Amino acid sequence: MPITTLSGKQFIGGQRVASGAAELISLRADNGQPTGYRFHPASRHEADCAARAAQSAFAAYAQTSCRQRADFLDAIADQLDALDDDFFTIVQQETALPPARLRGERARTSGQMRLFAELLRRGDVIGARIDTAQPQRVPLPRADIRQYHTAIGPVAVFGASNFPLAFSTAGGDTAAALAAGCPVVFKAHGGHMATAELTAAAIERAVTQQQMPAGVFNMIFGERIGADLVQHPAIQAVGFTGSLQGGRALFDLAQQRPQPIPVFAEMSSINPVIALPQALAQRGRHIAQQLAASITLGCGQFCTKPGLILGVHSPAFSQFITELGQQIEAAEPQTMLNAATLRHYRQGLRELDQHPGIAHLAGRRTAPAQQATAQLYQAEGRLLLAADTRLQEEVFGPVAIVAALDDDTQLLQALNALQGQLTATLLADDADLAAAAPLLACLTHKAGRVLFNGYPTGVEVCDAMVHGGPYPATSDARGTSVGTLAIARFMRPVCLQNTPPSLLPPALQDENPLNLLRLVNGVYQRDPL
Amino acid sequence: MPITTLSGKQFIGGQRVASGAAELISLRADNGQPTGYRFHPASRHEADCAARAAQSAFAAYAQTSCRQRADFLDAIADQLDALDDDFFTIVQQETALPPARLRGERARTSGQMRLFAELLRRGDVIGARIDTAQPQRVPLPRADIRQYHTAIGPVAVFGASNFPLAFSTAGGDTAAALAAGCPVVFKAHGGHMATAELTAAAIERAVTQQQMPAGVFNMIFGERIGADLVQHPAIQAVGFTGSLQGGRALFDLAQQRPQPIPVFAEMSSINPVIALPQALAQRGRHIAQQLAASITLGCGQFCTKPGLILGVHSPAFSQFITELGQQIEAAEPQTMLNAATLRHYRQGLRELDQHPGIAHLAGRRTAPAQQATAQLYQAEGRLLLAADTRLQEEVFGPVAIVAALDDDTQLLQALNALQGQLTATLLADDADLAAAAPLLACLTHKAGRVLFNGYPTGVEVCDAMVHGGPYPATSDARGTSVGTLAIARFMRPVCLQNTPPSLLPPALQDENPLNLLRLVNGVYQRDPL
């Protein structure tokens, strides 16, 4: 029996709207039964209205000050923090994620709203640059040129199943877009629609409280409607977290528009972990334990799950593989996010089982219904050198593949043959560092984040984080979807030439009333002109 | 008779390479006759070799320090400045551009190499950010995360016909890519191949002198080979300056690759100029003179040529149009860059002549062979409100269209209906500024650069310049192809987590040996940690 009442309608321009029947059914993750909540799939007209509502809000919202948007983001954070036990009960029903994890994820979600608020108050996202006039310059005088960054326009955001809060309705892409001054149209994730409605309602309360323009945030339900959204002329950028197939499909649609738009899709990564000899010799057993914990954390449902473990043939590496296998074998089955995720996981395992160059090493072969067991495979090193497709593709869930290379040279070749990654990890002791240097140089060209002596699950939300990387990790290596640099995806530079002082935005005024750090005639300074 | 000897071969990995016949013929712009220089079209194999040469150079070149790259760019600038009278004779033959203009353009080209060198010595392109570890943080400790920007990979660059130096072989895109740490494969422009060879040879001399890796710069001849280049897996980004049709074709190819890559194409802009009432009343005649000079400068062959002049119906605006027509009528015919450019110009005029909503106002209807005459047309205001295709499309050459709107409201509607632009200009006196404010707000969403009381031709190369704008002005509104921010197109962020001090790049080391301005725990500072 439902514990609260949900309307199941679209969020469009501050109104709740629906036509047709509420035929989308929210399901429990643990048994596939209905939670009792039903949702209206958005019609094409409603998708159009949502995009137009965002467009209508754009002119006013893009003109808000950084401080106003900071207050808005803080208000959203407060609303998220006020979500009650009923909310968590519903999220847990829809995702099977444990309560402690969900509480932590909520803190992360409101925390990243507040981090973007802090960023806006710091003001450097404006990127103010001023080159003052040189009327006496010969042969030609120089005009006064002043540059800043402004919002790119309405953004369509597609959330992920595996982070129903931090990468969904009020997640990182929404936070970055709203911080940039871009209205958002969010496509609710079908795996947690009730969660999405409660989260969107929290955002709406903040919109009202802060008197933001109606239409600054919109949300529509339904699966096929995402294509309409990406093709809508009002939409100027896309944020996406999910599968390679889904992300690439939206990317292709966006590039085929009359006016192509940037798509920031975070998609597929196998997150290689390279275990170097001295580290294995010193603490091989500990590494096996920690690595198994990272592979199985959250049932392996992280985009940064380590999926490929590499080393050079040696007795210590063989021993390490044995111990890693024991850890994987001992891991308890876990419930996956939904039936489709479990089905994809099992399909991925079947493909590994059938691959002639890949052998099953460890992992229980039977599991309770709806649950997944951790698995470990071993691939022949030659598959890596040949950039084998199956090996390069992520299997979402608690599975990893180990592979041993003949020597350091072959290891470097294998890394060079990898596609783009979100993360790459070097497990290295001091005595390994000389060997690690060329590997690091290679990995910085392959991944968005390179770690030493840690595990890639767990992505810190901070200024320096890069959660991105070359294709297919993302569709644009120049972006990050976690951390404050994420805002740059949704801003574009503009410059003003010989603008009368009364029309200059505060960021570019001579007096520097916002006390910004500005690049003035080639020197960073906070001084007035 | 040729005044120097050119081999006409590709520049690949520091070697001159050619197969097949030298069947590409360099032509004089003024009479279409051969200059005497012939070039070998690159074979597909040669295009592949050029891309591989760039890839081979990448690992070493991306690891060079900012200071090393700065020295390299300065050396290129010196080589450009050392090009002699024979060089200018050849450029003039191929482009019909006057000697003074070409000398100025050479100064601009070497000047922008030196500006990027200065930028590299300043070091802020690295974008260093450090979030230090918080081992005691609860519930989870924070790792040490350090972010920097690194080169995206080999870049294919396509130059423009209208700036044979500043937007061609050693032009802005080449300078930005080399500054970023990206090797370049340049596709020589068919309109000035001899110019391209002499320029590439100058770059090669700097490569040798500075002991840069062979393959850091490559150049191939031929038209159809550009598609191969853009599709080559080694190429990681594209810079292009030219037509909408050409840029879009390369963009589409790049997005259809197995691994899509960013394309920064600077394409089509009509650069609206809005003349406000008080400015017209105070100095209408002067504006007409200045505007006509901007329309006809360099035979209208600038991407920032003002192509659309807007105002509100009034006797002053009518008078201004009359005066502008007189100026256009009085303009002398000029030789265009080449026969194809002239053919396109005449085709564009024919389309305007045939358009039922557009009337011819002024301009001589006959011209010497190979020459173009300036033209002025008037369009009905309703065409703008309906976003008429012909009106939105650039006609490259000395032609502009004027249109009068009924009132301020309709003027704002007309601006809102415009596509993306490189520039937009407001001609406004103090008494116009209240009316200009909403127009400015609109134009900052439409253009990369908004000017007051100036003319858009003439693009300053400086930190604050934006030569970009929403589609179809460019294929990515988040880039600029002029000014130091252009380097950002070819860099991507990477972060390092818990990296041993001995493996940190200097930019991220605790001691801050490069004295960079870094974002450390949310505060910009140059202090060591």
TrEMBL record, chains A, B:
Domain Aldehyde dehydrogenase: 38-461
Matches recorded under InterPro entries: Ald_DH/histidinol_DH, Ald_DH_C, Ald_DH_N, Aldehyde_DH_dom, Aldehyde_DH_Superfamily, ALDH_KGSADH
UniProt superkingdom: Bacteria
Enzyme class: oxidoreductase
Pfam families: Aldedh (PF00171)
GO MF entry, a single one: aldehyde dehydrogenase (NADP+) activity
Alphabetical keyword list: Oxidoreductase
Keyword DNA repair set for record: no
Enzyme nomenclature, EC number: 1.2.1.4
Protein name: Aldehyde dehydrogenase (NADP(+))
Organism: Serratia rubidaea (Serratia marinorubra)
